[in-house]
Amino acid sequence: MPDTKFGDSMPKIRSLCVYCGSSGAVAQVYRGAASELGAGLAEAGIELVFGGGRVGLMGLVADAALAKGGRVVGVIPSRLRDAELAHPGVSELCVVDTMHERKARMAERADGFAILPGGIGTLDETFEILSWKQLGLHDKPIFLVDVEGYWTPLRLLLEGIVTSGFARPETRELLRIVPSVLELLEALVRGPGF
Ligand code: AMP
User: Using CA atoms, how far apart are residues 118 and 97, in angstroms rounded to an integer?
Assistant: First the structure.
């Protein structure tokens, strides 16, 4: 948990932190969404902040952004970099000591967050950034990109948490759900509207 406030949400997102799977052994629809997001961010002039890996959807987002001349910032713990998992072509690679430091640094560097399909690491990042927002530690927009309904179980879980009384109804407002990368990009260009 960081002890600093991230500040108020910005009117326009210039730098977006993307959380997504490190696995590439997934359906083409998810791989395509990752490439579409990378290319779209570059075209919109929005910097990509991500976990710095060359693997899976993470690598695809970064590859596509770089291919279109976008700026890409990777934040990676030294242990993962040394395991040669770091993306070799990023514009800036921030090497940190721990996973906790990485999440704090990624959050500080971005004006907003987008969650693509992913696994345990993606869920960890998602819940941390949501809980920091719930506590008022930041007020940046968080977009859940529900590609082909991948996040339906998560949406049901969150709804159940609210209806059971474990979270306030306002919790629903912490997250903005968009059904596709295209609608995410439109929201980013128009402004987050939060
Ligand atoms: P997962 O969803 O379990 O595949 O984890 C992916 C998320 O955790 C990404 O958003 C990354 O920030 C982080 N992560 C997990 N594995 C790696 C890796 N090998 N290299 C860089 N980041 C990773």
Answer: 23
